[in-house]
Design a protein that fits this description.
By secondary structure, the protein is of the alpha+beta class. The chain has 2 domains: 77 residues, Glutaredoxin (3-Layer(aba) Sandwich), CATH 3.40.30; 136 residues, Glutathione S-transferase Yfyf (Class Pi), Chain A, domain 2. The chain is built from 9 helices and 4 strands, in the order E-H-E-E-E-H-H-H-H-H-H-H-H. It has a 4-stranded mixed β-sheet with strand order 2-1-3-4, with helices on one face. Strand 1, helix 1 and strand 2 form a beta-alpha-beta unit. The longest helix has 25 residues. The radius of gyration is 17 Å and the shape is globular. The protein starts with a strand and ends in a 9-residue tail after the last helix. GO terms for molecular function: glutathione transferase activity; maleylacetoacetate isomerase activity. This is Glutathione S-transferase family protein. InterPro entries: Glutathione-S-Trfase_C_sf (IPR036282), Glutathione_S-Trfase_N (IPR004045), GST_UstS-like_C (IPR054416), Thioredoxin-like_sf (IPR036249).
Length: 230
């Protein structure tokens, strides 16, 4: 049975952009599981599977409904142990928790602020109103003002990626010789920006960008099925 993945979209249902939904999509593909993306705009999220989670991603696998990208990865690991592992053991789960917190606290804040108006502009009108209200409450200022200083903070953001950049001189993936869920956590963040905004955050020769290109090629080029924003 095909698994359903409720995927956050804007006005174009063929362009899912949520970093967390991309994590789930990469995890499903890593396990070799067939899945169908269910386009879900912001204002429809509260109705997904009865609104039990309130956010996406959410998957339905037969009778099981699971929300939250990390919980989805754990569910897939436990339910399909005969398929390629997302964690390569308990240590991998613990390390992925660290990577997730690092990504949420270091990568997401800059990317989310830098692309804020790009996200808004790609939403349907009813979703734009919701997005503006919630994000202005979060940032405490008009959303138009939030990306205004992104260029002045870009070099600082790039510097924060140095631990990842340095690690990639030793191995091709965060997971080692092959990708694990830890890779999908960070790749999901960069895919978020790639799909929603033309803003360039990585230099052409940045090893992080080279790694991200490798991630886009995984699983039959899953990440490239949605073109980069222009």
């Amino acid at each position: 049975m095909t698994i359903l993945l409720y995927d956050l979209v804007g006005s174009d249902p063929a362009r899912p952009f949520s970093p967390h939904c991309w994590k789930a999509a990469f995890a499903l593909a890593h396990k070799g599981l067939a899945f169908e993306s269910v386009p879900t705009p912001f204002t429809a999220v509260k109705g997904v599977e009865g609104g039990v989670f309130g956010t996406v991603p959410v998957i339905r696998d037969g009778e099981r409904v699971v929300g939250d990208s990390f919980a989805i990865a754990l569910y897939l690991e436990e339910t399909y142990p005969d398929r390629p592992s997302l964690f390569a053991g308990e240590g991998g789960k613990a390390a992925s928790r660290f990577i997730e917190r690092w990504s949420q606290l270091t990568v997401h804040p800059f990317l989310g602020a830098a692309a804020l108006m790009d996200i808004h502009d790609r939403l349907a009108p009813e979703d734009q109103a919701h997005f503006r209200t919630t994000r202005e409450a979060r940032f405490g200022r008009p959303i138009e003002d939030v990306p205004a200083d992104r260029d002045s903070h870009l070099q600082g953001f790039r510097a924060k990626l140095e631990p990842l950049r340095s690690m990639l001189t030793y191995q091709p993936f965060i997971g080692g010789d092959r990708p694990l869920f830890a890779d999908y956590i960070v790749a999901g963040a960069f895919q978020w920006l790639r799909v929603i905004s033309p803003y360039k955050v990585l230099a052409d020769d940045d090893p992080v960008g080279v790694w991200f290109e490798r991630c886009l090629d995984l699983h039959g080029g899953l990440g490239r099925r949605v073109s980069a924003a222009a």
